[in-house]
Amino acid sequence: MAMTAYKHLVHNSDGSLYRRTQVLGRGKYSNVYAVVRKTDGREYAVKSLKPRRAKKFKREILILRNLRAGPNIIEFYGAFVDAYTNEPALIFRKIDNTDWKELYPTLNGEDIRFYSFQLLRALDFAHSKGIMHRDVKPQNVVIDHKARELRLIDWGLADFYFPGAEYSLRVASRFYKPPEILLGNRRYDYSFDMWGAGCLLAAMIFSVEVMFRGDSEEDQLRAISSVLGGADLRAYARDYQIELTPEIIEVVGESRTKRIDLQSFGSRLTSTVGEREAIDVIEKLLRYDPCERLTARQALHHPYYTGLIQGIQDPQLASSAET
């Protein structure tokens, strides 16, 4: 798309001030580069967007502006038109993060408790602003372990929540899609993000790369129901009058009937109390019925995070649990 199509949106920064140094990541909708600002040598991360409608670009900028100063939200500095691609680009703080596949196996129980708490804080803030992330996964949760900092990044699939509105199903990565999305429910809400958070915490606690791994969207339901129970999935669909396709009935019919006790997965936690409470959080996030999942605020006040929540300066968050 021509530069003029974005002129009214990119007025915060001058792209000529930045020199690209290396590729940080490539994705379906964007590429991310490290850049240096020529005036002072400071490093930033630039997300160069691939051609798409200006409406979506405008929405992403609006969401990022609404999230500014939020805890554990990636710092957003502005936008410009990339001189290399002639497409819009977003400027962010560059995080010195370690790839999650290398980092997660090295984390101890206290690290997992700390970082999952920070993720929940980011989600609680976003949800308080009326924003669903819709793509919570390890690749979008960057951690600078030396600095003990976590940031939730990539808000390109995020959207504002309006009760009763219908939303796209073409969001999130397959391994982190909640059951209601896999079943075609377009009227979802913040609980979408809580499923992803539950999958991420479960993978950390149980020392697996992915909690639910399916080869297709139907097979993803098989992977989920083989752990959480096929009978419960069918009951959820019946209660919400969701008609299961023959393909789904086939894969769910082959899955385990009852929910597995998640303690049977084993965990890396050394504390019996910590293990029991961590698994309880996972149990309450990985529910078929979105209404039964913990909200981010409720999760923050779970006994698993006792001590961390008391250290938060926000009086509203620290003193009251959502019921």
TrEMBL record:
ATP binds at K56. One of its GO terms (biological process) is regulation of cell cycle. CDD domains: STKc_CK2_alpha (cd14132). SMART domains: S_TKc (SM00220). Residues 18-305 form the Protein kinase domain. One of its GO terms (cellular component) is protein kinase CK2 complex. It catalyses: L-seryl-[protein] + ATP = O-phospho-L-seryl-[protein] + ADP + H(+); L-threonyl-[protein] + ATP = O-phospho-L-threonyl-[protein] + ADP + H(+). PROSITE patterns: PROTEIN_KINASE_ATP, PROTEIN_KINASE_DOM, PROTEIN_KINASE_ST. The keyword Secreted does not apply. Its EC number is 2.7.11.1. Keywords: ATP-binding, Kinase, Nucleotide-binding, Nucleus, Serine/threonine-protein kinase, Transferase. Belongs to the protein kinase superfamily. Ser/Thr protein kinase family. CK2 subfamily. PANTHER family: CASEIN KINASE II SUBUNIT ALPHA (PTHR24054). Catalytic subunit of a constitutively active serine/threonine-protein kinase complex that phosphorylates a large number of substrates containing acidic residues C-terminal to the phosphorylated serine or threonine. Heterotetramer. This is Casein kinase II subunit alpha. It comes from Powellomyces hirtus. The lineage of its organism: Eukaryota, Fungi, Fungi incertae sedis, Chytridiomycota, Chytridiomycota incertae sedis.
